[in-house]
Amino acid sequence: MKRQNVRTLSLVVCTFTYLLIGAAVFDALESDTERKRWEVLSDMKNSLVRKYNITPEDYHMIEIVIIENKPHKAGPQWKFAGAFYFATVVLAMIGYGHSTPVTVGGKAFCMAYAMVGIPLGLVMFQSIGERLNKFASVVIRRAKCYLRCITTEATEMNLMFATGMLSSIIITTGAAVFSRYEGWSYFDSFYYCFVTLTTIGFGDYVALQNDQALTSKPGYVALSLVFILFGLAVVAASINLLVLRFMTMQAEENIRDEDKDGSRTMLAIDGHALAARQRSHEDQASVCSCNCLGNKQCESALLVERAPRALRSQPHLALTPDLIERASV
């Protein structure tokens, strides 16, 4: 079994094991709270229905009105500022779900826009990430030269550390800003920044949804958009290094496997060639006489065997070289 297949199978097993562990942990952390919240909400619903004598149909209608009215509480979502924010979220593949198109034309254009915009955004973020890695490598080399290090080249670990530190700075700074403007706790703001820059985008926390910020706070809107775009570029730089590292390891393993396969093939070919040469020499020796191989000892032995019996019975008549030469002619 090739090493590439073993690595792929190991990744599949590790991923599913990680999924099982994550499901077990989330179950242990969230299931009890979910059950308690459901019990509290059910008690409140029953008390409201009994107090105001609301029919199930009316209560369902109230639920629909409240759910549909929730996005409009934050102000207009489809003016130019809100539309630009939505377009950015689509291109970055975050997908909060706080506002979605409802018209047929809007849905159709959203699909076409995403088909072109998502690859364009990926290429842009990838290019910016490469430029950031190049800039970080220059800074690291100069820092090593200033510190008089033995090796001044920027290694992959140095670049990963630098981009990781920059990502941490962006997330922590953004968390402080959003905590100030949105009124969230710092941990919730940090959670929002992490979910946003990793393009998970649950939508439980969405910026620019309080006090009609999309229309009344243009500076805050611009800051939020810059945070999303620049933060995604930095995260893309980190992911780019991880992907390149994995691809480098995979390419090295492929080269080693190809070298091993090539060496086995050459050994097999050499073995067959050697056996063929041996068989050809044997056939040549059996078909041709020893004269073809130029073996004088074999010539002498052959002549002795073929010499007349009378000649072999007289020792004084030795087979001299001249005699052998004449006999061979």
Describe the SSE topology.
Blueprint: H1 3-52, H2 56-69, H3 80-91, H4 104-146, H5 156-182, H6 186-197, H7 213-216, H8 218-287, H9 290-293, H10 296-306, H11 309-313, H12 321-328
Helix pairs in contact: 4-5, 4-8, 5-6, 5-8
Structure description:
With 329 residues, the protein is mainly alpha-helical. Helix content is 79%, strand content 0%. It contains 12 helices and no strands. It has helices at residues 3-52, 56-69, 80-91, 104-146, 156-182, 186-197, 213-216, 218-287, 290-293, 296-306, 309-313, 321-328. α4 crosses α5, α4 (104-146) packs across α8 (218-287) and α5 (156-182) packs across α6 (186-197). The longest helix has 70 residues, at 218-287. The chain is globular and about 85 Å long. Mean pLDDT is 81; it is low at 282-319 and 323-329.
